[in-house]
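Quick illustration, no need to memorize.
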Amino acid sequence: MTDCSNVDMREVLPEFLHGKLDGMALGRVQAHLDLCSDCTAELAVLRAVCSTAPATWVDVERIAAAIPPYRQRKKLDVVYLRLAAAFLIAAVGVSAIAVTHQRRSVYLPETGGQAVTTSPGLAIVDISDLSDDHLAQLISDMDHLEAAPPLDPDPALSLSTGGA
């Protein structure tokens, strides 16, 4: 069996078979079937398949009734969401203000009486004036610092005298 080159006509054959076409469309398909043996053969196959296949009906109303209804958001839910968003925005704003106001000026004797702006946890000495040699020495000294105590403590020294 070969296929008809008129794809549009082949696509409407199932509708023609089930009586879903009307007027001009029905007349065009019938006229085409009178001239095209390929479409006539395909329509015969469709009829054979439809006659042997059991008709299955889907009860759409029963299925739709079984689906739980969509729960719309209550106005109270929206109010809580808006309040949570407002508190979040306020907390971020207060935190930003607190961080900004924690900076303070300190007068250090090492800086020759200059005011140095500091933040908690940051260096309180301005290192921009240090030479390359001084910076290298500072980095070298930092490599020898212990940030945390060792996991194994040093053994305790016995203060007892040799013979007891």
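The mean pLDDT is 76.
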